[in-house]
Amino acid sequence: MRARASLRDEIYQDILDLLLGGAYQPGEVVNIDALSRTLDVSPTPIREALVELEHTSLVERTARRGYRVASPLSGKQIKDLMEVRTILELQALKRAYPTVDSWIDELTLAHDEHVKAFEYLPRAEKSQEYSAIRHYFEADWRFHTIIFENAGNGYLLKVLEGLAFQMHRLRQTVGHGKSDGADATCEHSKILHALQERNEKASKLAMKSHLNKVLKRSVADS
Question: Which residue ranges does the record assign to the HTH gntR-type domain (predicted)?
């Protein structure tokens, strides 16, 4: 049973890499037999992994057609999603700021990792190294997660975790989000610099500006 669960988890991650790496377009049918050949496994663990992925809203099950990649987010859905993120992020930053001395080094390391992942991204895209593309997204998200982890409210963190896959859907909608890496790392740098300077007001303004720019880029590309 452990071996089967391990295989299912591995296939789950492989399919997630394909989704985030752009191997499938929003609304495209996910052919189980083709995936079985690509991943060199039987259809069973693929079906099990797709059931799990359905819970994330990244794939949808349709009558008589099996699974397909989730439809693109509408412009209103993108705006609503980013509105919620802005409310949560600014509140988390406000709550976390008093203890910034204890987590600023971790945030700095996370930013450095995000920059490295971005610099490697062109090579990963060219060679279809999907795990490296996923790593870029995870490094981006980790920067924000650290602030939530230090906000002193576990429910805030759980809400953020619930939004993670919706952000993946947003990336699928706008071409997988890879094109804004230079902007995102630069905007994160401004947030980090303000925190390193212990300028709470500037850090909040930088965070709000970053999220507003993510919204504008996303709506423009959708």
Answer: 5-72
